[in-house]
Design brief:
With about 220 residues, the chain is mostly helical. The protein is about 65% helix and about 5% strand.
Length: about 220
């Protein structure tokens, strides 16, 4: 009959420390490597392809290669004599004038197109706009009371009625109306004259009306 296993705490301490065990595991490849600096510890994960250079350096190399090719392309041979120098300078002046002419032509074309667009827009606005006439108005024309509206309606009806009567009236009817109007004017004159005579006649005072006045005197 076997005895039960002794508890872990009762077993003697191993000769290797935890640091030695971790180092052994790292060396065996069980644990990833660690970079330790002072008290800071960081894992060191190896790259998938350690032989591949980083991309940053590859970008720099490509950029340097392109710049070198561009320099070779733009590079001009050095003038060996004064004539070669004059020829190179004249060629450079010709190229400069061509570039200036091309740029000025482009600017003039753009400005002409812009001016044409503005002119077309102005012409379109003129054709679309509606003509109107500005006339002066008074407050009475704008603000009309009910009384003025009623008077205007009455005047309009009278005007229409006069137009109807003038169209349907005959010569005899017109003569009859004129005679009646003359008679009315004559009667009006007679009444006015008689009224004026009455007002101009002196007032007669009866003796009965004079006695109280005499008594007062």
């Amino acid at each position: 009959m076997s005895s039960p296993p002794a508890p872990i705490m009762s077993q003697p301490r191993p000769e290797k420390s935890s640091t030695d065990i971790l180092a052994q595991l790292r060396s065996e490849g069980v644990l990833p490597g660690l970079k330790q600096r002072d008290n800071a510890v960081a894992f060191h994960v190896p790259a998938e392809k350690p032989d591949t250079p980083p991309r940053y350096h590859m970008r720099l190399q490509k950029l340097e290669k392109r710049m070198k090719e561009r320099r070779e392309k733009v590079k001009k041979p050095c003038a060996e004599s004064a004539d070669d120098l004059k020829r190179q300078l004249s060629d450079a002046e010709v190229r400069r004038q061509e570039l200036l002419a091309k740029k000025s032509g482009k600017i003039s074309t753009e400005s002409a197109e812009k001016a044409a667009k503005i002119k077309a827009k102005k012409a379109a606005r003129k054709t679309i706009s509606t003509a109107f006439v500005v006339t002066s108005t008074s407050d009475s024309d704008i603000v009309a009371t009910r009384e003025s509206q009623r008077n205007k309606r009455m005047e309009r009806r009278l005007t229409e009625r006069r137009a109807r009567v003038s169209k349907t009236a005959t010569a005899e009817e017109l003569e009859t109306r004129q005679n009646l109007a003359a008679k009315r004017r004559k009667d009006h004159v007679v009444a006015t004259v008689s009224k004026a005579k009455k007002l101009a006649r002196p007032h007669t005072i009866s003796p009965a009306q004079q006695e109280p006045g005499c008594a007062r005197n």
